[in-house]
Design brief:
This protein is mostly beta strands. Helix content is about 0%, strand content about 50%. It has one domain (about 30-190). It has strands at about 5-15, 50-60, 65-75, 85-100, 105-115, 120-135, 165-180, 190-195, 215-230.
Length: about 230
Amino acid sequence: MNMNISIKGVIFCLLTISGVSAQDVHLSQYQFDRLQISPALTGMFNGDKQAALVHKQQYFAVPVDYLTFSGSYDVKFKDCYDEKGFFSGGILFNYDQSGDSKLSLASLTINGSYTLPLTSSLFVGGGAYLGVGQRSFTEKDLKWDNQWDGTVFNPNLPTGEAFDRTSFTFLDAGLGVNVRLQGVDRTKLDVGIGAFHLNRPNYTFYKNPIEMFRSAHQAVLLRSWNTKSA
């Protein structure tokens, strides 16, 4: 009896960041939530709609673990098909929390894309996203050098730290392009680029904009293929 086994692999991934001052949500199996890679991949799939949920929790053995959750949904707009291509839309939610400070990032983005089939197996697409995010932390469980009195830790001593705020919100925007080569039996190859944080939002817990979210450019080559075993 023949059995089809679907194998998905990442052949190559190149991430280039222009300056490093903050970190996005990062997933080891990001190919299963492709809206993380580029907004141009919105609606770039066989079918009418798709959803993805990703959950990651690390370091159970240490006092403070790390939690990441991501969910996305995208759909092709059948009423927006024209003679050549089609429009798609999607939504992406990310949540990340880590450390004693419960440093967290929550973001919600809206994606839009247009895909143009050049042949029955070659597709070119472009997309954009617009979103809002919140960054926050709590000082309650933090310990500082100034609270060491020379003998023991004294939580009643002043920390010497003064933050203007413990949470802030920011707007975010980006673009992407992608080329899809579609084979048979779900075999496909994606080549594209995603550009994130192009508006370089203010990203600091101080009121003065001393730190900006650097723009990031991500080039990805993804391939999925099927094999058959007896």
